[in-house]
Amino acid sequence: MTHVLIVNQHGENRGDEAAMRAMLASFNTLLQDATFTLLYQFRDRNLRLEFSEDVQDLPIVLPVMDYLRAVLYTPLKAFGLDARWLLPKPIRVIIEAYERTDLVVSAPGGPYFGDMYIDHEIVHWWYIYLARLFNKPAFLYATSAGPFKNRWMNMVRRRLYPIFDRLVTREEVSARYIRALLGPSANVEVTADSAIQASFVPYIRDQYFTGERRRLADCFLAAVSLNDYQYPYSKDAGKCKENYNQAMIQLLSYLSKRVAAHYLFLPQLYGKVHNDVPYLRSMAERLPEGTSWEIVDPALNSDVQRRLFAMCDLYIATRYHPAIFASVAFVPGMCIYYEHKAQGFMKQLGLERYAFDINLVNGNELCVALEEILAHRKEIEDHLRKVVPFLQERSARTTGLAVDLLRQRPSLETGGHKVKCHC
After folding, report:
1. Does the structure show a pLDDT above 60 at 234?
2. Does the pTM exceed 0.85?
3. Chain-centroid distance, C-alpha 28
4. Hey, what domains does the chain have and what are their CATH numbers?
């Protein structure tokens, strides 16, 4: 039986959840007897994910003192002394997962490696370093990476990236960042985001809109995912944020004048600690009186959300995975990106015309692009039907590369078992 340890999973985010679910399903297809241990990071400790696969989940949001004891343990282990008695029970259980695993996978959601994550990046590198400490193969599962401008952290990154036996990114920009960091000879393969490989049947409108809400089934449905972006690199974050908010209100107001629209605001963050429902509500309440809108229940998991995106006529997304949810279901729309991962995805689709930098967002330009989308919806849908299957094959290739790594490592035949692959 093959065991896969998944680290650096981003919590309380439906997009990262969707990427995780798709990855697990594809591993289960190729490794039919696989078991998984997932190190999950939920600030709201009451939250848990449910999976159909055989998954043991272990929390990594632990007291600082627990990690300080792990810091003492790590160099001792590196020098051959297994001072496990230093560790608190939660970290001992994590260490045991490394001991029995066949493969360490850095999860396909939040990348964590790059200047945007520098305040906690070293913690995520520690989980990768443990793979080397226990002589386990490590696989970067189609994440993004970079940018890498901090020269002090770059010295660490250059030493730690080579721990990965295989580097796979979900778009070309990240691959270029890694090659620039490690040198042009760095072997980085570009596939596509994990969530792309999964498809979902659209929710039936008459089943979603029932009773007095039945009339909404006949509306032009627009899926909206907005981001309460804090503009961390701006000298005047408040001004930039209000410019973005006004641009989005202008865009949604314009659409309401063009068609009989009903807006589905779909939360991506949920739980008691990270939750974007208050922000979505504040934006919806700024729309002109009479605008039809609702905030979708944040408790609905990513699978249900994907069916709701597929049910809609158009999407407007300032978050990355909602653009994927809609596009994979052949729903046209636009993406206002705050990281290169979304820009890269729109380029993979061949629809970068409808991708806009959140730092330069302009309401008039968005409305012009929206008018183009409305005028060419059928052509865009047909284009998506042609390009999405190709991207789904690329996305699924990531798991194939991981399984190839399992088969290539002779050291995996430990503990009296061999990797069984159904390829």
Report:
1. yes
2. yes
3. 20
4. 3-196+390-412 (3.40.50.2000), 201-387 (3.40.50.2000)
